[in-house]
Amino acid sequence: MSISGKIGAFFDLDGTLLPGPSLEWRFIAWLTARDEIGAVDVARWVAQFAGTVLRDPRAATIGNKAYLRGLRESLAEGWENSLSVQPFAAGLARLQWHAAQGHRVFLVSGTLAPLARAFARRLVTPAEVIATELEACDGRWTGDISGRHMSGEEKARAIRRVAARSGLSLWESYAYGNSVTDLPMLDSVGHRVAVNPPLRLRRIARSEGWQSCVWNERLGSAAVGRQELSPGEAR
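^ that's the sequence the OP posted. Answer follows.
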């Protein structure tokens, strides 16, 4: 394997590579518009989440898939056909730059794996997906996740497993995240990039000497994105 083939580029999705709303919220809106789930179901889900998130954020995140119970797995395919979200232009350029160098590109996200895979299939650049898998039975979701929710330390563990299995050098690899919850993933690689960082992450990036950038230009938009890191500086 070449040196470049031993390098991974790990991108968080929502808020890093993609503008809001999140892929899951887009999916919920689509399900609601199709009457697959009702507004009352969504309201109940939001209320349950809000009542739990301050006490136990992790449990709130993991336990909020009950709205999917009984729904067909094939609905993700229908949603994919209607998917119109575009990544940040600078983020897409960075992803394509890594692929051009021969680096392996990964999308690492807490979002639902079927949604992350749908987005990945829209990319010209091949990207492997590491996301939250859903439990299913007889072609229908049970409302539970399969395995662990892909967030926090679990992202770091998943990256280490991929590196061990594929012979990647994490010290030479890159990670891009927009939240303090991405810190374990960022800490797992040698090249750490804080994207659209909130105040706390921006302070950490500055104190640790990490690279940071602001991606706010959407494809097809006239907005101007300020990028503090150019592809030529990535190594």
